Structures are given as structure tokens and as C-alpha cells.
Amino acid sequence: MKRLKRYQYEKYAVLCNLAYPRVFRQTQYGFDPNGQRIIANRFGKTIIRVLWSKHQQEAIIVIKGSHSLWDWIGTFAMWQRRCKPLLLPYRIHAGFMALLSQESRPSHKDDTLGQTVFEKTIRISEELIRKGKRITVTGHSSGGAIGCIIADALEHRFPKSIKRVVTFGQPAVGGWQFKKSYKLHHKTYRICCDIDIVTFLPPLPFYYWHVGKMLWLYNGRIYENTPTLERLIRSLFSWFLRPFSYHLMSKYIRNKVFFDEH
Known about the structure:
alpha/beta; Rossmann fold; 8 helices; Sec_MonoDiacylglyc_Lipase
């Protein structure tokens, strides 16, 4: 597996953050004036942006995390459903299945009624792949989870069409069968920050499994593929000791910047 470089991390993190505002001006970030397609949910709210430039081989699918009460309620649907409607050979989290299979409200002249979020994303991506683009998928929280499913579906249909998958604060997607069938372990980077509780969800060991390479940003370092239980124990231990760490002289020396020079 290739390493995720700092500029790549920053680019995808910025795009994930900017996916939440209602308006996103893609030309400010190097994409074409017509290089954005929006996929809306059943309420007409943007859930996915597909971005590209004719001068770049990479097209990027950016997916928001949970940003409505309905989305958050869906995260508690922790049973697994077959992916037959998505034509994939495994079961996934029922809440994520609902996000993908909901009808997408039209937001472009080429959109038609009756298409799901999944179908519309796949259709737009296929058009770009046929034009020679390779797809990077990035998403935050539940957006990262459904991003893995979208990326895997595209890889099943168009081998080597996925450049990489980068997720931030992503919960687990499916069970052992999903982990075995997932084709992009070597291209998937799952980034976790400190004790982000969502990255431990769903709290059902051996029923849910993560995929790809985990990069844990913790105490000023990057740890790779730290086991979930070890990560949880270390995080809780650090959290418990944190009030005492502020007593160390190193903290007082670090805060010297608060004092004016005389």
C-alpha cells in the first residue's frame, strides 16, 4: 500500500470540510466551472458532490456525514441488510443502506425522477470513468462509510477505476463477508483522530469489521493499524490522565507565548 502524503491528506480534509456549507464554488479549488455534479437526498439537500477538471485525471467524490435528525436516527439501525439492490455480494449497516437507497431529488437537467442516491452517483461516475478519469472517494463519518460502498461498487464494475479512498471519522460498514469481499483494502485510508467515539461504532465486536489501513492521529503522532481494543484502552487512559498532564513543567514552558516580551 502506498503512503498517504501530507498534501493529499490536506486536500481531502479541506474538501470534506467544505462539503457541509450549502454553497461550494469548485473553481476556487481547481475544478472546472462545469466540473461539479450534486447528488441530493430525498429532502433535496446535498449529500454528495462529484468534482472534476478536464486537465486532471483524478475526479473526486466528496460525501457529507450525518447532518440531519433523519441521518442520525439511521445510525442506530445497526442490523445488517443484503446489498441486492446495489448488486453487491454482502450485507451492510441498515442505516447506510437506507442512505444509499433513498430517492435522490433532481438537481441537474440530466437528472430523472426515481433514481436513488447510489444509482445517480454510479451513473455520473461511470461517465467520468469512460472519459479516462480515475476516481478518488472521500467522506466524513457516515459519508466515509457509504463512500467505501460506492468505491467498491465502481471497482467491481470497472477494475482499477478507483485511485484511492480516504475517510475521516468513519464507523464500520459491514460484517466479515464485507471485509473479505472488499476490493480496495490496499487503496483505503481510514483516518481516526484521538478518541473520536464514532470510529468505534457500531459497538458490536465481530459483527462489524473495518476495512483498509487505519491511520490514528494521536498525541502528535500517526499510528498505523492499531487494534481497536488497544486504541480504546489507550485513549481512555490518556483521557483519565489528561488533567494531571497539565501539571507538568513542559506545559508551562510551552505556554510562554502567552506572555509579552519586555
